[in-house]
């Protein structure tokens, strides 16, 4: 059951990768002199320069055999001066099964820290957090699942996917969390979208996007600074459906990402013991 649950959380991250990213005052038109495709291209360029942000995400899935599923959480991201990420999954469930206590992963420096009670029970850990060096992460398929999820929240790569769209268009002006935005809607072919990514990211993205059909529908709400505030997607394959919604905020604002207390951390167990 644990492997199925861990796979579910990885699937949730895959949906987020496929997705490119109210109420309030009446929004004013922005980017009025740019074609929708140009706005997406500029957004991809600008997100590559973002050093910090916060994202809240909700992923829903339905499968003919597995039933309904939901993954909900948030992530703090920092790329400079060093890469650091704090990912919290409050809800992880599928077909009536759930991951008790959710999951949390912190990437800092050369280490990833994972806190999942079910994983601890599986590998025999005696402390709440498991620490794994990035140079050793290939030795642990379970920990690698969470590291993969962290990587999929890379905003720069996510926005590159939608630049493959050939039918994107503006559908109006809306307020997202109190900010004026322009809403763009379209779709992108999976194969063409994957080609927009760096070579070392393409294989993983292609594997993740294999869970949806050839074309992925998306909506993105872009503010006056050219950065997305909301991203949504939907897709399906062979009777299964999935959708994801993400809200971005705090661009280039300070974030506090710290490793867990040392007395709460054990190394990945070997031979059934922890250090």
How would you characterize the overall build of this protein?
Strands 1, 2, 3, 4, 5, 6, 7, 8, 9, 10, 11, 12 and 13 form a 13-stranded mixed beta sheet that branches. The protein contains 7 helices and 13 strands. With 275 residues, the protein is α+β, with helices and mostly antiparallel strands. Mean pLDDT is 77; it is low at 1-33 and 271-275.
Estimate the helix proportion, in percent: 25-40%
What global shape is seen?
Answer: globular
Average pLDDT level = 77
Strand content: 35-45%
Following the backbone from N to C, one meets helices and strands in this order, namely: HHEEEEEEHEHHEEHHEEEE
Radius of gyration: 19 Å
Give short descriptive properties of this protein.
single chain, 275 residues, alpha+beta, 13-stranded mixed beta sheet, 7 helices, globular, disordered C terminus
Set out the fold topology:
Layout: H1 2-18, H2 36-47, E1 52-63, E2 67-78, E3 84-94, E4 97-98, E5 103-108, E6 111-115, H3 117-123, E7 129-133, H4 141-152, H5 155-162, E8 169-176, E9 179-189, H6 190-194, H7 199-209, E10 215-223, E11 228-237, E12 240-249, E13 265-267
Parallel strand pairs: 7-13
Antiparallel strand pairs: 1-2, 1-12, 2-3, 3-4, 3-5, 5-6, 6-7, 8-9, 9-10, 10-11, 11-12
Helix pairs in contact: 1-4, 2-5
